[in-house]
Amino acid sequence: MRRLLLALTTASALLLAGCTAAPQPPAPSVPPVRLAVARSTVAVDQSSLAARAAATSRALFAASPGVVLAPADDAAAQGSAARAAVRLHVPLLLTGGDDAAAEAHRLGATWSVGYGAGARVAGLRARSRGIAPPPPAAEPGALVLAADPRADAVPLATARAAGATVVAARTTDLNGDGAAIRAIARAKDARVVLVGAAFARRTDLAWSVAAARTGWTYPDGGQRAWDGRSLYVALYGTPSDGVLGVLGQQSGPATIARVQALSRQYAALTDRTVSPMLEVIATVASGAPTRNHDYSSEIAPSALEPYVDRALAAGIPVILDLQPGRTDFLTQAKAYASLLEKPGVGLALDPEWRLGPKQKPLVQIGRVSAAEVNRTSAWLADLVRTKGLPPKPFVLHEFRLTMLQQRQDVVVDRPELDVLIHVDGQGSQPDKQATWRAVRAGAPDVGWGWKNFLKKDRPVLTPRQTLQQVHPTPDLITYQ
User: Quick check: 159 and 144 in contact, CB under 8 A?
Assistant: First the structure.
């Protein structure tokens, strides 16, 4: 707790301008202002401005000897009152309802400074506007993020009176706002207060702030992968196996250098922030029965961890790709929880390799139900939330409409996940474009991925041709 001492000036300083009086001894000190600043997240999202003003006071002040008052329907008076509240380091409350009286009582206030007609609360004695302010807060205050600073000038005056840092939020999705993330990360253990009626639509604010506190971001400064501002260029495959994709055609350090060089080619062609990414096949579909008879060879998380950590250390996000064979996606995803707990590691489901009890890879094209996708995404979202992790990419591969069954029922709005549909068509460019259009038709609002096959496309598009011919511009361009 921090204490602010509100010292009163002499009686002569309290007289109206133009009046004179003999000097008087200093008035006794009044109870100190006590600020309530602790590690927590508070949403001030009430619909009325008066309620938000009182709620902001509750979030930041444990007690105050006085308050500044203004009518809820007098904007001009509120402006003057806001300046006074900041100067006096006490809350600003709005009269015209019950909010101001209740909050003044909770604060233990005994006096008020009023602006505008009706700026009174029963039981508080009126004080002169010329009252001298106490010293400012000696310690850093809370962080206040405002959804609409102009609409919430009154509660933000209370925030500044408490010594809080006030930052305008670009969006209520804090994890997509680089400035908000930086401010929250800098705030460390300070209380975060989110002010604005718009925040009432968010039910995930405690997690959102916890994720921002990690300070982890993508190169564009946000924690959202498919935000429309960035383009990711990825290599696909599994380590030490060049047959399954270009990712395994060289050593780990060489793979990092290769994807960085490829990303630089794209960066020279677009205004988007271009970043490298790796999509690592963690479970590989097998044409023969495996040890557990699921026709999927699972690479041990401990074996993948050094590879993943090397990429993350280079600032390269990683997506773990699952080819589950005859088992289900959720079972395999849980086996990689230790890797998925790392910021910067996402998950991809490849339904092509999700087979029935009697099916085999390369004989049939697999499929997955929306229900199984949703069970998997719900588990991953819960992992993100409970661990306070930044949002994770959640990629769904699709090149036939049958691969994602009941696609309209796939949940794509979990705030903890950024969903992307990756269109994996190969062959001639007219065929690939037709697949791109067919998969995108009637699709939900998600990110989009495009794949260039170095051995199977005819022709293989250059980076410039990819950006010129694939519309809209993908969020993720993968090479296999």
Answer: yes
